[in-house]
Amino acid sequence: MKGAEAAMKEADPKRLRLPLTREDVLSLRAGDEVLISGRIVTGRDKLHKFLVSDRPSGKQMPVDLEGTILYHCGPIVKKSSKGYEIVACGPTTSMRVEMYEPVVISEYGLRGIMGKGGMGPQTLRALREYGCVYLHAIGGAAVYLAQRVKRVAGVWKLEEFGMAEAMWILEVEDFPAIVTMDSFGESLHGDIERKSSDEFRRLIGLV
User: Fold this and answer.
1) HSE (CB half, 13 Å, CA atoms) of 159?
2) How far apart are CA 41 and CA 32, in angstroms?
3) Do 33 and 14 touch, CB atoms closer than 8 A?
4) pLDDT tens for residues 165-199?
5) How far is the CA of 85 from the CAs of 89, 92, 155, 188, in angstroms?
6) Which residue in 171, 155, 93, 104 sits closest to 132, CA to CA?
7) The domain that contains 99 carries what CATH number?
8) Which H or E element spans position 136?
9) CA separation for the pair 34, 131 (Å, rounded)
10) Which of 23, 97, 167, 190 could potentially form a cystine with 48 if both were Cys, beta carbons 3.0 to 4.6 Å apart?
11) Is residue 4 one of the residues assigned to a domain?
């Protein structure tokens, strides 16, 4: 019974409180389930391009990105007399910003990138070099994930980029995700691709 209880405790999600340190990141491995609490920011193609091409200074940024998580998400947002409310905030495909992500990680001190589908070898190298992880959020659960957003703390570039492409600053609580690329060079997405390729080669008689 004690062994079963220990196994259940080991299977519990790890709770991450933002901002993260490099030591926090080094405690995470591919396959870990996590619950995130604290301040995250959203960002898609336009924001990534802006961060890389214009390199805004700290004074221009609405929030310090050091230690936080950048979420690849174009949320649906409703404005009321009480402010902004997130209606849905599911992940978008991360590979679309692969060309920008290594620079964003290195320049802004991020400790986590979150989206869906994983990222490529350039980002994997940056995760390892700078101490960062990639987190896979639940696809098809945009409304549920919106319920984990407790407050919209701010928004940047809304008029210029539009709702989906703006940087939304979100206070989240127990936001669920899985570490699929870690700071040790492990990628579950790469493992699946290799296994799929090997199986395909076997099926067509190449091995």
Assistant:
1) 0
2) 22
3) yes
4) 999 999 999 999 999 999 999 999 855 555 443 44
5) 11, 19, 12, 34
6) 104
7) 3.20.130.10
8) strand 133-136
9) 17
10) 97
11) no
Q: What is the pTM of this model?
A: 0.88
Q: Is residue 7 part of a domain?
A: no
Tokens of 137: 């959020």
Q: Is residue 121 assigned to a domain?
A: yes
Ordered alpha helix ranges (H), the chain: 2-11, 22-26, 45-53, 101-108, 121-130, 142-147, 158-161, 188-203
Rounded (10°) angle between helices 121-130 and 101-108: 10
In a domain, 154, yes or no: yes
pLDDT at position 11: 65
Domain that includes residue 34, residue range = 14-203
Kindly state the tokens that stand for 122.
């350039």
pLDDT of the residue at 189: 80
Contact yes or no for 66/119 (Cβ under 8 A)? no
Cα gap 150→86, rounded to integer Å = 9
- 44 neighbors 164 (Cβ within 8 angstroms): yes
Catalytic residues: 48
